[in-house]
């Protein structure tokens, strides 16, 4: 188990395979206060590997486990976050890592996923592709379950995907 200590509470999430977890998890900062009005944040730098997507989801689930965050809101944030992390893992070559930042203040959750890779076409619309399309649903899913979505280039290279979700209890 990977335990994350914060001033007010300990978060726990299942660990990735032992050979990856300690050697590739670069930075992890968590602050989750007991009272939601004070806000809190989670910042983590993850290797660009597929095993980090479920890890990010579990960290988010633990971080948002508060009475003031309803199950539907938590599920929407988890889904959008998984799609954003999957995009970073899939499209961020040649970058080796990506950065996840979650910030909760009052009843709003801001999530940022950033990488330093080549990225993807920013002109891609956030509409669901046809039934036979193999990929291309990620941004459309994020847009449909969040309240605000922004995707932009990061100088000198990379993509910043930012979304906001209003948390309902």
Structure, explained:
It is a single chain. This protein is α+β, with helices and mostly antiparallel strands. It has a single domain (19-166), classed as Heat Shock Protein 90, CATH 3.30.565.10. 28% of the residues lie in helices and 31% in strands. It contains 4 helices and 8 strands. The strands form 2 sheets. It has a 6-stranded antiparallel sheet with strand order 3-4-5-6-8-7, with helices on one face. A two-stranded antiparallel sheet has the order 1-2. α2 (52-63) runs antiparallel to α3. The longest helix is centred in the middle third of the chain and has 21 residues, at 71-91. The radius of gyration is 16 Å and the shape is globular. The relative contact order is 0.16.
Q: Tell how many strands the DSSP assignment holds.
A: 8
**What is the overall shape?**
globular
**Structural classification:** alpha+beta
What is the CATH homology-level superfamily?
A: Histidine kinase-like ATPase, C-terminal domain
- The radius of gyration is 16 Å
CATH class: Alpha Beta
Order of helices and strands: EEHEEHHEEHEE
CATH topology: Heat Shock Protein 90
What's the main sheet like?
6 strands, antiparallel
Helix content: 25-40%
Total count of helical runs of at least 4 residues: 4
Parts with pLDDT < 50 across at least 5 consecutive residues? 1-22
Strand arrangement within the widest β-sheet reads 3-4-5-6-8-7
Q: Span between N and C termini?
A: 29 Å
- Strand fraction: 25-35%
CATH architecture level-2 label: 2-Layer Sandwich
Compute the number of structural domains: 1
Mean pLDDT value: 78
């Amino acid at each position: 188990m990977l335990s994350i200590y914060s001033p007010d509470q300990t978060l726990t999430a299942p660990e990735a395979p032992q050979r990856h977890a300690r050697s590739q998890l670069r930075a992890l900062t968590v602050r989750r206060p007991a009272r939601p009005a004070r806000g809190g944040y989670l910042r983590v730098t993850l290797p660009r590997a597929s095993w980090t997507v479920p890890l990010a989801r579990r960290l988010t689930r633990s971080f948002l486990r508060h009475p003031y965050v309803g199950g539907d809101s938590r599920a929407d944030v988890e889904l959008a976050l998984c799609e954003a992390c999957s995009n970073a893992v899939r499209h961020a070559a040649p970058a080796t890592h990506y950065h996840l930042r979650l910030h909760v203040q009052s009843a709003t959750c801001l999530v940022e996923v950033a990488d330093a890779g080549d990225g993807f076409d920013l002109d891609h619309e956030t509409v669901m592709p046809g039934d036979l399309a193999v990929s291309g649903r990620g941004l459309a899913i994020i847009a449909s379950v969040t309240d605000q979505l922004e995707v932009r280039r990061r100088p000198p290279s990379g993509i910043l995907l930012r979304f906001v979700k209003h948390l309902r209890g």
